[in-house]
Amino acid sequence: IVLAVVLAMMRKSVNPVLRGVSWFFIWFFRGTPVYTQLVFWGMFAVLVPKISVGIPFTSVEFWSVDSNVIMTSLTAAVVGLSLNEAAYLSEIVRAGLEAVDSGQVEAAQALGMGRSLMMRRVVLPQAMRIIVPPLGNETIGMLKTTSLVLAVPFTLELQFATNAIANRIYKPIPLLLVASIWYLVITSVLMVLQSMLEKHFGKGFEARD
User: Fold this and answer.
1) How far is residue 22's CA from residue 62's CA, in Å, rounded to a whole number?
2) Which of 73, 167, 189, 194 could form a disulfide with 136 if both were Cys (CB 3.0 to 4.6 A apart)?
3) How many CA atoms lie within 13 A of 132 on its CB side?
């Protein structure tokens, strides 16, 4: 979510470099399959065995570490899903920011607010009313996308764990039902949180409607 907000603000920046970087990030991660991205991050330690900081084209190194120490299975899954989801969420955030009435921005500027303060105190709180519903849908969608991480060497994912147990006890259907129930439970919790956020950021708007 934090990365999505940053990308959305970069897209609205007057700086063409920031706009270009944001556009490329969104274009790349929305245009490539999340399965392929997860495979890449899962194999990162194989593709890049060591991460080091030093002088390019020389043997001088100031700091180095094995990639598998940093890019664990859990880290790879979090990084892969976060980068992919940020590309989609950034467009939702941008739509929410652009939906805020321009008069609100002009009023904040008239009060002498800086751009960052105006964004925190005026624009974002009003935009959240529009952002939260699709944000909740994307979060639930990402939750179910975690089932794809079984394609790469991750062992903490729910679907992977239930498949492993099913292979041992030869009862795949009951374990698939168990996984489905867990997904439903977690999804239900997220839906409740989404409803609470919608009520919080919608204060004052219902009466106005």
Assistant:
1) 31
2) 194
3) 19
Contact 82, 37 (CB under 8 A): no
Q: Give residue 80's identity as a one-letter amino acid code.
A: G
Alpha-carbon distance 76 to 28, whole Å?
18
Q: 52-93 pLDDT, tens per residue?
A: 888 877 777 777 788 777 888 788 888 888 998 998 898 888
Question: CA-based angle 151:152:157, to the nearest 5?
Answer: 80
Rounded to the nearest 5 percent, the helix, strand and coil shares of the chain are 80, 5, 15
Q: What's the rounded Cα separation, in Å, for the pair 61 and 22?
A: 31
CA gap 30, 87 in Å, rounded: 6
Q: Which residue(s) pair with 52 in the sheet?
A: 64
Contact yes or no for 154/76 (Cβ under 8 A): yes
Residue 76 phi, psi (nearest 5)? -60, -40
Contact 148, 77 (CB under 8 A): no
What digits encode the pLDDT tens for the residues 155-172? 445 555 656 666 666 666
d(CA 157, CA 183): 11
Measured distance between the N- and C-terminal CA atoms of the chain, rounded to whole angstroms: 29
CA 108-112-116 angle, to 5 degrees, is 70
CA dist 140 and 51 (Å) reads 34
